[in-house]
Design a protein that fits this description.
The protein has helices at 21-28, 45-63, 110-124, 140-148; strands spanning 11-15, 66-72, 78-89, 92-101, 130-136, 152-159, 162-170. It is of the alpha+beta class.
């Protein structure tokens, strides 16, 4: 895909907004990730894209942090979404780095870079003393990304019926 770019520090973050719909329409065309994102694939492409943006905007409004658009610096294109989402884990509120859409086929390393950018965002805005990443026990690739970015496994838990590992990193 045209968004692949191996430059380091290639992303910036900003709030999601309606201007992203055009690029999301391109993303949603014949995208194999749709079913995993809980998107109704029977909807027209523009409706799917619009609904997705609406969902991200709602999350931003209700969770204080919500989802941020990942923009590639060199091209100005939207290439993914990262977010800081409040989660209730074992009766304790935690702040999770969440990856809504990281289309790896657009170029390896976006998950790693968004993780770095989200941690930087949390530190600069004094949002939390630590961040977590909730990863399914079977999800080895995501665990590798978490470990690569300074997260360490802190506990195993059941989250929304899934066996997960909770990875944690300090915001220092």
């Amino acid at each position: 895909m045209k968004y692949y770019n191996q430059d380091t520090q290639r992303l910036i973050l900003r709030k999601m907004h309606k201007d992203d719909i055009k690029e999301w329409i391109e993303f949603f065309i014949d995208n194999p990730l749709e079913i995993y994102l809980g998107i109704d694939v029977s909807l027209p492409t523009e409706t799917k894209a619009t609904n997705w943006i609406d969902l991200q905007l709602k999350r931003y409004a209700t969770n204080d942090f919500g989802h941020l658009a990942a923009i590639e610096k060199k091209t100005g294109h939207l290439v993914g979404v990262g977010g800081l989402i409040k989660r209730d884990i074992n009766s304790k509120e935690e702040l999770e780095i969440a990856y809504s859409i990281i289309p790896q086929f657009w170029g390896n390393g976006y998950a790693t870079e968004i993780s770095k950018q989200m941690k930087k965002y949390a530190i600069e805005n004094k949002l939390s003393e630590s961040l977590i990443s909730i990863i399914s026990i079977e999800n080895t690739p995501s665990k590798k990304v978490a470990l690569k970015n300074g997260f360490q496994i802190s506990e195993t838990a059941i989250y929304k019926g899934m066996n997960v590992d909770i990875f944690r990193t300090k915001c220092v």
